[in-house]
Amino acid sequence: MLKVAPILLAVLYGLVMYRFSVWRTKRELDERSTELADAGLKRLMDRMAAALDLPRIRVFIYEIDPVNGLAAPDGRIFITRGFYRKYQQGEVTGEEMASVIAHELGHVALGHARRRMIDFSGQNALRTALALVLSRFIPGIGVWIANGLTSLLAARMSRSDEYEADAYAAALMTKAGFGVEPQKTLFTKLEALTQSRAGAVPAWLMSHPKTAERVAALEALEAKWGA
Ligand SMILES: [Zn+2]
User: Where is the Peptidase M48 domain (predicted)?
Assistant: First the structure.
């Protein structure tokens, strides 16, 4: 029984961290966001809403500079001020913005947004528990192995989430009449941005698989759909 105690403590710690991070994320987003009011983008989003049989799609602007889109655990979709600025400056088209919103809608619809928060705290709990157990048998490198294993698992899970969200967005963009092209051109644009400004990697790319592989996956879908 005593041997199980550290593991139970680790799981408990994970649960507490989870509640805390959900609360903190929600508060941060509530304080620093407003609903997007852009007539041009609204027309595009209304077309996606119609394709989904929804009255409308609500999107919020999150007041930070890094180029990013995110889906909160409560299902709200956010575009950062930095991303919206790229659209206002004409660097990113309305259809390309729509493809980001479609991708984030995919994370919500497929249940990733909720699961990801659980993953994050679940990861902490797993990491702590593994480290505790492994350290008993292999002192010193036990923690290191626990970290490696947990990160590997997390990376695998988030990669497949990204491909699923891309596929969802491709289907929605096709149904709304935009086609898959804006998704592909956006990936290429964001990657060019990464190369021209070393060190300024858009956050949205950092948490996602390689551009070439994502474009290839989209083209495979297009070929399958005969687009
Ligand atoms: Zn994503």
Answer: 38-221
Question: What is the 162 CA–ligand 1 centroid distance (Å)?
Answer: 5
Q: What angle do CA 174, 175, 177 make, to 5 degrees?
A: 65
Residue 93, domain extent:
5-225
pTM: 0.79
In the reported structure, the alpha carbon of residue 107 is separated from the centroid of ligand 1 by a whole-number distance in angstroms of: 7
Structure tokens at 110: 């497929």
State how far the Cα of 140 lies from the Cα of 22, in Å rounded to an integer: 33
168-179 pLDDT per residue, tens: 999 999 999 999
Compute CA distances 182 → 118, 137, 208, whole Å: 31, 52, 17
- 103 CA distance to ligand 1 middle (Å): 6
Residue 91: the pLDDT is 93
| Phi, psi torsion values for 71, nearest 5 degrees | -115, 120
Q: What angle do helix axes 112-137 and 5-31 make, rounded to 10 degrees?
A: 150
Per the CB < 8 A criterion, the answer to whether 65 and 82 are in contact is yes
Least confident of 32-36, 46-50, 110-114, 125-129: 125-129
Total domain count, the chain: 1
Distance 182 CA to ligand 1 centre (A): 16
CA distance 221 to 217: 6
Cα(160) to ligand 1 centroid in Å equals 10
Average pLDDT value for residue range 148-167: 81
